[in-house]
Amino acid sequence: MSRFQTPPGTSDVLPEKAAERDRLEQTAKKILEKAGYGRIETPTFEFTELFARGVGEATDVVQKEMFNLEADSGTSYTLRPEGTAPVMRAYMEHGMHKLPQPVKLWYLSSYFRNETPQAHRYRQFSQLGIEAIGSPDPAVDAEVILLLAEILEAIGVRDVTLLLASLGQPESRAEYREELVAYLRAHEDQLSREVVDRIDLNPLRAFDSKDPRTREVMAKAPRLIDRLPQEDLDHFAEVQDLLQAAHLAYTVDTTLVRGLDYYTRTLFEFQSGQLGATQNALGGGGRYDGLAQALGGPPTPGIGWAAGVERMLSASTQPPPVEAPVDLFVAYHPEHKVAAFKLASDARRAGHSARLELAGRSVKGQLKQASRVRPRYVAIFTDEGVELRDRDGGEDKLVAPETVMHHIRGTL
Prior knowledge:
By secondary structure, this protein is an alpha+beta fold.
């Protein structure tokens, strides 16, 4: 046994888990592409500045959680900690604003954050996400939320709750931010040290604290939704009307926050009781109408979400995928190895699944292995010809090697 193990916060994906991921990917692809979303893949690493400007200097992601790489030239690169800023960068770099708007994109990729590993939280993790860029219409907000709900339902996630909020726009949020900072300073002696340390950097994150005394203080804190201008309230109301029309239940949560600075207006999160009481978030997102400008581009509205693949699979109630049936198992005596190899290759070229003895077993051992994989046909190369056994109740035959494909072609 090797002394090496996977690093903390990472995990191998073994074949049985890979099959579950493949099924999730195919489910998402079917649902999202029917709604007009095309797949995008951005590089695993980007310039560090992309995340510093896009995600926000005051966020935990930028301050503590990014894996940075220094090139010999002094240029700093970062393993991507999230998917929205890279997609917006690609949108601007490749002139997607010239396409019919909104541009709808989806992705399933690996991301990296240097945070303490916990249940369903890894340093390398996979996320499924979408971005709809180029339209401020509340209907886009409702559509992206519905698509994540549809995917969760399709993979059998139960006990799902949708939390919904609005962060308004930066102008109105700035006034509220000053009010919230003053409130937090007035109750500083009752807050956790972590919250106190970032009052000026990111006061909204106080709502996300798990500290009991802090939560007691925040229960009486002023709420942003009570300070929003009518334009933002109307946008939020239309999103709710559309979700109600689609019969999607939700709860308005005036304390909902997320750990990235680029969010504006609609904010949402899906949770599942199947993941426990604390680390119960499946995924979420929101609108980010100021992100393009933060990255040096023109004003460009956008909205999207990301959902943790590991979390979705942990909450899924679907049974493990059924292994694909094997059409043909080829066994042979050593002197017939070349002919047996050719038959297996011919069968695969014809579109059949075929297994070939590769471990040097005796013919008896090969037949035991065939029984484990349960193929429709077993072809045994002997000096007299090929003994073709039909394991589905058909007739066993002794046939010439060059005719095996003829005998099985019409029945598979």
